[in-house]
Amino acid sequence: MTGRDLFPTSLRLLGKPVLVVGGGRVAGRRALALLDAGAVVTVVAPEAGDDVARLAEAGLVTWVRRGYETGDLDGVWFAQTATGVAEVDSRVAADAEECRIWCVNAGDHEASAAWTPASARVDDITVAVNAGGDPRRAKALKDAIVLALRTGSLPLRRQRAAARGQGRVALVGGGPGDSGLITVRGRQLLAEADVVVADRLGPRGLLDELTAAEAGGPRVVEVGKAPAAHQASQDEINSILVDEARAGHLVVRLKGGDPYVLGRGGEEAEFCREHGVDVEVVPGVTSAISVPAAAGIPVTHRGLATGFSVVTGHEELSELPARPDHTIVLLMGVRRLAHSVRHLLAHGLPGRTPVAIVESGWTERQRVTIGTLETIVDQAERVGVANPAVIVVGDVVRVSPYAVGSLPSTSAAHPAQ
After folding, report:
1. According to the model, what pLDDT value does residue 414 have?
2. 301-307, Cβ contacts within 8 angstroms, sequence gap of 24 or more
């Protein structure tokens, strides 16, 4: 027998009597798998290992403590031999052939009427691999496919509308821009999505990887906001999420950064729940921490800063600690940079406090501008700093390799470690 002789199929064994001949480790594994499929399992073996014995003690299988007899196949739908004795396995297989019962002969896969593939389940997907009678090769391939499914590298979207069931919404944080920084769960949901509601600042590269809607991929709804060019209001976005979910779709709301960090994810989740729509929140790598990191700036650093605050450029800054050793991260703050700098200076931060502006972090367009509270406004105007950008204020900026030659030297820049 070769792999080409096989007709791959799946058996529904729920409530069906099956026979396992043998009591060793292989028999134990096969008995457990058959139980998982809902079969009624009888094990015939004069002796049994711990696996079979435990199943029998728990009442999950019937253990007949003797050698195999031809009558053991009466009424059986499926048989598995695993005695380790070729003669016995061959006899069971021959009897099963005579009775027209499918039998897996573990002792001789070439002569076996049926093969058991390496298998696994990922949600409602079953992976089964045969590899020319090489079980280790089959397992390696099965594991690789399972990994690809769990990481969203394979298309997971359901194509039959009847299989979709109740629609739902997933608020997915896509990270700061690099498509590799989304979480595994977020990437998996994208692969399953029927509809993707996308932000302008999300990881756009992920959208390019999706199969086009005309070819069976998800439909992409653009709702991203740009200065003076809003494509959709927040109320409109909320309605889109609920309406698409009610139509039976899995809706992925793909956001930049983390949906719960200044991303209005809380509002969207609340709206969905109020309207009876199930919602899942998938955290993302927030740009508040990751974009400074892209410029080599830690928001905390021993000897320089033990805490940080994240705010938007639209908020009052007077309540934040006015110390260079407390990091301030400003999101969406480019337009009101001069206003924010005046507030910080008036609140008591020294003019020599380091400032970094990181534009388009984690993308090919990333640019870093470093100065001080006294100089940063003029620098930003001179180079034409624009959103998306993250502004970092505090001594931690000195750690960045971009700060070399851009800031006055200070002994505090390299504290004892």
Report:
1. 43
2. 301/396, 301/399, 302/415, 302/417, 303/412, 303/415, 303/416, 303/417, 304/394, 304/395, 304/396, 304/398, 304/399, 304/412, 304/415, 305/394, 305/395, 305/396
Those residues whose C-beta lies under 8 Å from the C-beta of residue 239, and which sit 6 or more positions away, are none
Q: Is residue 103 part of a domain?
A: yes
Q: Which helix (H) or strand (E) segment is 369 a member of?
A: strand 367-372
What are the residue numbers of the active site?
A: 199, 225
> Do 213 and 294 have their domain in common?
no
Q: What is the mean pLDDT of each run of 10 residues along the chain (417 residues)?
A: 73 96 94 95 96 96 96 96 94 95 88 87 87 86 90 79 73 91 93 91 84 84 68 91 95 94 93 96 95 96 94 80 94 93 93 96 94 96 94 96 82 42
* CATH classification at residue 7: 3.40.50.720
pLDDT of residue 416: 38
Query: Which residue from 61, 11, 96 is spatially nearest to 106, judged by alpha carbons?
Result: 96
| pTM attached to this predicted model | 0.72
Rounded Cα distance between 34 and 20, Å, is 9
User: Domain tally for the chain?
Assistant: 3
Chain CA centroid to CA 403, Å: 35
Domain that holds residue 229: 161-285
Instruction: Report the C-alpha gap between 207 and 219 in whole angstroms.
Output: 10
CA angle 170, 176, 182 (to 5 degrees): 45
**Token pair listed for 291:** 């974009």
What's the rounded Cα separation, in Å, for the pair 313 and 391? 9
**Residues contacting residue 156 through CB under 8 Å, at least 6 positions apart:** 125, 149, 188, 191, 192
**Are 382 and 303 part of one and the same domain?**
yes
- Which pLDDT value is given to residue 111? 81
How far is CA 344 from its chain centroid?
Answer: 40
Query: Is the distance from CB of 403 to CB of 370 less than 8 angstroms?
Result: yes
Give the integer Cα–Cα distance in Å for 95 and 85. Answer: 16
What does 193-216 look like in DSSP terms, one character per residue?
-SEEEE-TTS-HHHHHHSPPGGGT
Crossing angle (nearest 10°) for helices 184-192 and 135-150: 90
Backbone angles phi, psi at 281, to 5 degrees: -110, 125
